[in-house]
Amino acid sequence: MNVNIFYQTDVPKHLRRTGLIKAAVLEALGKYRKEKAEVNIIFVDKKEILRINEAYLDHHYVTDVISFNQPRPDFATEDPWAFGDVFVCYQVAREQAKNFDHTFLQEMMMYAVHGTLHLTGMDDHTPPERAEMDRRAEAIIARTLDK
């Protein structure tokens, strides 16, 4: 699995810990990490996450993370296929880090991992589902930061 990280907003250089983010995303992919596919993690600002929310989900508000799965192609290909895209709002991560007693980097990783877990099929529509996703994401981030 290829994991691509894009910074389409003013993420400070010292927070662009691409290797750590990629490692956490790969762990979150679980069994899917062996696929010949690509995941894109794109850090954006509030204006862009709102535009995406409105254009593709008909939601008229800013959110922390949005994930889009891509279907597996029906044909054999030597090139990696697009497994999915995760858009992370850097500004929301900055604002929310304090509320969750996370560092800014941990919160950015939390959204990238959370969005990736959605790509693997996990949902957070109910409180128990949300709690399980949060528990799993926290564990992945802790292991990644401990390496």
Count of helical regions:
5
Uncertain regions: pLDDT < 50 for 5+ in a row? none
CATH class wording: Alpha Beta
CATH topology: Collagenase (Catalytic Domain)
Strand content: 15-25%
- Write down the overall mean pLDDT: 93
Strand line-up of the largest beta sheet = 1-2-4-3
Examine the secondary-structure arrangement and name the CATH architecture.
3-Layer(aba) Sandwich
* Rg over CA atoms: 15 Å
CATH homologous superfamily (4th level) name: Metalloproteases ("zincins"), catalytic domain
| Helix/strand order, N-terminal first | EHEHEEHHH
* Percentage of residues assigned to helices: 40-55%
Count of strand segments: 4
Report how far apart the termini are: 20 Å
- What is the SS-derived class? alpha/beta
List the keywords:
19% strand; four-stranded mixed β-sheet; 147 residues
Write the layout of secondary structure elements.
Elements: E1 2-7, H1 18-29, E2 37-44, H2 46-57, E3 65-69, E4 81-89, H3 90-96, H4 104-119, H5 127-146
Parallel strand pairs: 1-2, 2-4
Antiparallel strand pairs: 3-4
Short synopsis of the structure:
With 147 residues, this protein is an alpha/beta fold.
Tell me about this structure:
The protein is 46% helix and 19% strand. The chain is an alpha/beta fold and 147 residues long. It has a single domain, classed as Metalloproteases ("zincins"), catalytic domain (Collagenase (Catalytic Domain), 3-Layer(aba) Sandwich), CATH 3.40.390.30. It has a 4-stranded mixed beta sheet with strand order 1-2-4-3. α1 links the parallel β1 and β2. The two termini are 20 Å apart. The model has no long low-confidence stretch (mean pLDDT 93).
